[in-house]
Structure formats: C-alpha cells, structure tokens
Design goal:
- A hairpin with a 4-residue loop joins strand 11 and strand 12.
- The longest helix has 17 residues, at about 65-85.
- This protein has helices spanning about 30-40, 45-55, 65-85, 110-120, 120-130, 195-200, 205-210, 210-230, 290-295, 305-310, 310-315, 320-330; strands at about 60, 105, 135-145, 160, 165-170, 185, 235, 245, 250-255, 265-275, 275-280, 285.
- The protein contains twelve helices and twelve strands.
- It has two domains: about 5-295, q2cbj1_9rhob like domain (Jelly Rolls), CATH 2.60.120; about 295-338, no CATH class.
- The chain binds 2-oxoglutaric acid (AKG).
- 2-oxoglutaric acid binds next to strand 9 and strand 10.
Length: about 350
C-alpha cells in the first residue's frame, strides 16, 4: 500500500502503476472461479455471475428488490422533494416537462429508505464477491427521467488505487420504456485501457475549473474509442426491481430520450472496495473514503462500541457502525464517543 498523503496531486498519473488487479480482471480468473466453486466458496449462480462479469463487464440481477420496498422508497423520496429536504438539480428549464424533476445527488443522506437500498446486504455481497474485497457504499444519484449522459467510464470521475476497485448499480423503480432514454452500455469495454484526464491532455486546472474539458475532450475521446473498437451499444431493458451492476471501466451512459413524456425512475449507487485509495481523477481531489487524507478514522482505529454508545439511534437501527460512520456519521459530524 502507498501513503496517499505522499501523492502530490490525486490524478492517475501520480499513482504507481501496480496491482493487485481485481481477481476477475486477472488472466487466471477462470481457474480461480473453478477453484472457488469446487470448494463451495461460491455457488453455481455466483460462478456464472463471475464469468459473465469477467467477459462482459456487468451482471444483471432480475427482480432484486420487491415492489413494496421500491414503492415505499419512491414515496419517501418524492415526499422529501415536496418538503424541500432534498432538492433536484436545476435542469436548464426543462423540469416542468411532464412534471419530471432533475436528479438528486446523495438522497440516501436524507431518506432512510434509499439508504436501505444502497446498503442492501445481498447487493453488497454480490459486489464484494465481484471485486474480491468488501464493498463500501459511497454515493447515490436518483432521478425521475433519463440522464442523456454521453458514454463514459466511471473511473474518470471516481477512481481507485489500485485500479478497478469500484462498481455501480442501476436500479429500476418501474418498467423502463424504450423511448424514455434507457441506460446504455458497451459490453466488453471494461477491458480497454482506462482513459484518464492526463492521458487525454486535460490539465489539472481545467479539470478543477469546470466540465468544459470533459465535454470537449473526454467525451469525444470515448466516442472515438467506441468507433475504433467497433463497440456495440446494449440498452438495459429493465423491469421494476431489476439491477444492473457494472465494472469500474465499463463504458455506459443515458441514451437519448425519444419521447419526453416517459419517466425513467431509477437509482444509481456507487461502491468502492474497502482498503483502496479513492479519489476523483477529473477534479484531482481525494474522496471521503480515503481515510488518511479526509480526517476519517481508519477502520482498525475505529471504536464501534463507543460510536454506538454515542449515537443510540444508530445502535437501535442495528446497522454496521463503521459503514454508518463513513457514509453518514462523518459528514453529519456525529460524536465518536459519549
Ligand atoms: O442513469 C443514466 O442514464 C446514466 C448513469 C450514469 O452514467 C452514471 O451514474 O455514471
């Protein structure tokens, strides 16, 4: 492991190029999957997901959440918008169309039912298996309609050292209509080299100033990658409750909304693996999950008993104390001990 405080600027080119590479990205992954299956460490279904992930860079879990849980979470989310507890981003004057507001970043901080979706044990288990390390919830984005984001890899935004220890989920709150701008992704694109700001010629100053260089340099670079590698788009034909989990380097985005009347209710969750350095390559900044630079207490120094004693509501909720601390408690300035 490296000392993140010794990295002058958190951009990919300043980190040493070393592993360990996530186990499913290694050359011997097939052998390792077979071995884990043989010893019963993973089930047949899990082995299938591992193989699919390795080959295509994503897996789909059909009907991962029951309708009732989704309806409750959506209800609470809309109630939070109505009460002003969460505020959708301004949408260049389009928010009035069909009554569909813009997206909300990190609604799980304010809406417990969304937090429960982010911290769902089954999803965490599957992602932890795919990454080979325990997954930690990091960030959520929720929205009523298609994002129309051009194709990108999450790694330009949210990056890990060593590389590849990030995954994201896309959860449908309704059956997704073809014309609503479904999530689009490019199977196999996770095997391409990671395209970072430095490689594309985006300066630290430009990345920190605005997203102009992202749109003018990064997005065309990715379009060119798609064309030169002959990558074909696939559209997530999701039914309510389906979840797609994607690899840190899978190219994906929001396809064009062909009919703006259609909503596209969805939640995106991002996860990092425990123990890696987490940073944002484009904005050259450290993430909150990087203990040494953010002021967060490292897991080995964290006193769960004291934290729970100081925060009885957390104790009562019977959630993992450290996970609560890094995803909520730190930002909320919670006491570490009574
Ligand atoms: O939901 C979408 O349309 C795209 C989401 C996405 O690209 C992301 O959150 O990284």
């Amino acid at each position: 492991m490296i000392d993140p405080t010794a990295i002058p600027i958190p951009r990919a080119e300043h980190f040493p190029s070393s592993g360990p590479v996530p186990w499913l990205d290694r050359d011997d992954a097939e052998t390792q999957i077979d071995a884990k299956l043989a010893t019963g460490e993973i089930t047949r279904q899990e082995a299938e997901w591992c193989r699919y992930w390795r080959e295509h860079g994503y897996v789909i879990l059909k009907g991962a959440f029951p309708d009732q849980q989704l309806e409750q979470a959506w209800h609470d989310y809309e109630a939070a918008i109505d009460s002003g507890t969460v505020v959708p981003v301004e949408d260049r004057g389009q928010e009035a169309e069909a009554g569909l507001p813009g997206r909300v970043l990190n609604p799980h901080f304010k809406v417990p039912a969304i937090d429960a979706l982010l911290c769902d044990e089954h999803i965490l288990k599957v992602i932890s298996m795919l990454l080979g390390v325990s997954a930690l919830p990091f960030q959520t984005i929720m929205g009523h309609k298609g994002s129309q984001q051009l194709a990108h890899s999450d790694s330009i935004h949210m990056t890990t050292y060593p590389l590849g220890y990030l995954a994201a989920t896309w959860l449908a709150f309704e059956d997704i209509h073809d014309d609503s701008g479904p999530l689009v992704y490019y199977p196999g694109s996770h095997k391409l080299d990671y395209a970072f700001s430095g490689k594309i010629g985006i300066s630290v100053e430009d990345g920190q100033a605005s997203y102009v260089a992202y749109h003018n340099q990064y997005e065309p670079y990715v379009q060119n990658l798609i064309e030169t590698n002959g990558l074909e788009p696939t559209y997530f034909d999701a039914k309510k409750g389906d979840v797609l989990i994607w690899h840190a380097n899978l190219l994906h985005g929001g396809s064009p909304r062909r009919d703006r009347q259609w909503s596209r209710k969805a939640l995106v969750c991002h996860y990092f693996a425990e123990g890696c350095v987490c940073y944002h390559d484009y904005t050259a900044s450290m993430s909150h999950l990087t203990n040494e630079t953010s002021g967060l207490v490292a897991k080995e120094d964290f006193d769960a008993k004291a934290y729970l004693a100081a925060n009885p509501d957390v104790a009562q909720a019977k959630v993992d104390a450290y996970k609560h601390y890094i995803t909520h408690g730190f930002d909320e300035g919670r006491p570490m001990r009574p």
